[in-house]
């Protein structure tokens, strides 16, 4: 990450999975949404959003 001091907001999934699967909840928030989703060097926000919506359809 460009700015290591960036605070990653916890998702609702962490609250629901935190007791049951704490490592999965951590990876979901910190890696997926924190590091991967916030990267702007590869795809812009519009393109990332379109890929996400397409995958969900």
Automatic annotation (TrEMBL):
It comes from the Bacteria. The lineage of its organism: Bacteria, Pseudomonadati, Bacteroidota, Bacteroidia, Bacteroidales. This is Gamma-carboxymuconolactone decarboxylase. InterPro entries: AhpD-like. It comes from Candidatus Aphodosoma intestinipullorum.
């Amino acid at each position: 990450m460009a700015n290591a001091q960036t605070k990653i907001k916890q998702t609702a999934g962490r609250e629901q999975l935190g007791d049951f699967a704490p490592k999965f909840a951590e990876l979901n928030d910190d890696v997926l949404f924190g590091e991967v989703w916030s990267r702007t060097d590869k795809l812009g926000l519009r393109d990332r959003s379109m890929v996400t919506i397409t995958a969900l359809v």
